[in-house]
Amino acid sequence: MPKFAVGVDFGTLSARALVAEIGTGRELGAATMDYPHAVMTRALPNGTPLKPDWALQHPRDYLDCLGFVVPEALRRSGVDPADVVGMGIDCTASTSLPVDADGTPLCFHHRFSSVPHAWPMLWKHHAAQPYATRMQQAAESRGESFLARYGGKVSSEWLMPKLWQILDEAPEVYAAADRFIEAGDWIVYKLTGVERRSAAIAGYKAFWHKEDGYPSEEFFAALDPRLARVVDEKLSRALYPAGTRAGGLDAFGAKLTGLPVGTPVAVANIDAHVSLPPAGVVEPGRLLMILGTSTCHIVLGAEERAVPGICGVVEDGVVPGLYGYEAGQSCCGDHFKWLIENFVPGSDAAEAAARGIGLHELLTERASALRPGESGLIALDWWNGNRSVLVDMDLTGLMVGMTLATRPEEVYRALIEATAYGTRAIVENFASHGVRVDSLCACGGIAKKNPLMMQIYADVLGREIHIARSAQTPALGSAMYGAVAAGGAGGGYDTIAEASRAMGGVEDSAYAPDAEASRVYDALYAEYIRLHDLFGRGGCDVMKRLKRIRERAIR
Length: 555
What we know:
The protein starts with a strand and ends with a helix. The strands form 6 sheets. Strands 14-15-13-12-18-19-20 form a 7-stranded mixed beta sheet, with helices on both faces. Strands 3-2-1-4-11 form a 5-stranded mixed beta sheet. The chain contains 19 helices and 20 strands. The chain has helices at residues 59-77, 129-142, 159-169, 171-176, 183-192, 199-205, 217-223, 230-234, 251-257, 333-342, 346-355, 359-368, 408-432, 445-449, 451-461, 473-486, 496-503, 515-536, 542-554, and strands at residues 4-10, 14-21, 27-34, 84-91, 96-99, 179-182, 197-198, 239-240, 245-248, 264-266, 269-270, 286-291, 295-301, 312-315, 323-329, 378-380, 398-400, 439-443, 465-468, 506-511. β2 and β3 form a beta hairpin. The chain is globular, with a radius of gyration of 23 Å. The chain is an alpha/beta fold. 55% of the residues are buried. Helix content is 39%, strand content 17%.
């Protein structure tokens, strides 16, 4: 009798559930639901305005999505819920929320419903950048060893700067919070009634280390005396590795999902990291690009090395026994969405509608007809700040070479090329600091749907790129970890490597670089690096000055 696992991927804009067969990885049913409140960047649900660089979510959306996508995926699969051996979830990170003693988000309380700091701060909430900068400066001045594991930088996308922002700007929220918890950990808690926090999420997003634990109380006190006991008062030192069984579904979780009470649930994962096993990436030297709203680049290594500008290196962070190195770009799919929604003329929209295709398809078709370098454009991929290797969220986008003859498809292609250049900078940074990158693999909707983008990546990097077989790698990866939570004796697997070999893999064909295109892109990449270093390494701080001027103008 075949057995199955369920995975749920909580992305930036939606949640997706997948039912997969143990032993084959065959995907039998899936369902997706957009978050009703999407990403709140301008106002709270009651109209309370938000300042620039804020990005919040509504925790009710997570539960509403769970209550639809899992039962619907099960219905579509035709699988008997009793044959599901385990369940796993992944979530964007760091997406954190303050909760009361019962685990209720503070934003659910009337007292805090109009206070932005009481709502979940999404990973791309960049309003904490001043606190990240001060945190980095303090760590540098004190010679804190943990900083080297994060590329020598602190990002506003991580947990601790957000907590400091809340303490400083809304101390009443900080005081009222019994604890702060990652959204993924909170979802698992709601499903099981048991709080089992992810060691991987804490490792990548909260400075936790397997041997050293969190930074010292002295470090946090040096930032702000009120933060001295932040770990013991607002977080937890009890952390659990990926694949650990967090607990079984309780009555609430069972009713929400349609699965039996007691179904094993794995400790939460980060959406990008959970994608490696489905792509067959469970050994050193293979780098996976997880292409979505943003991009994460993760490669496994056999030893810990200090690499500047990365997002973190965590032992057992992805696969037990190996070190997971993470870097990334804060803007990928968001680039193209921004262009489509704001700068495409009505005539293009009319043509796409008449042909029965989307604007992305239309611009991709037109951009495919352009030769490398033909547009005369080059862009910096910083429309949402720089995650790696500069780790500076105050940086902004740049497009050079525009004229009155510039067309939307040329801008579209230039943005694709910019993300490819940013990826090449990350790959070269890994290699130059002793982290092997022997092969490249990509996953995500973009990787499956946009051959032009993947060919440009192959040409820019001058390397072959393999594509994960599954179009739903995060959800499939979560299902795999759910199977590991069940264990071999429970119908699943004892290790994630076993699950990967049985359920993961890549497509038979790959994208190979075109020699002539690569020659042109080598020249363009050199120009990209000149702009990258000029605007990103202190040669010209106009981007930062403009942000300060904007802040003063809107006060």
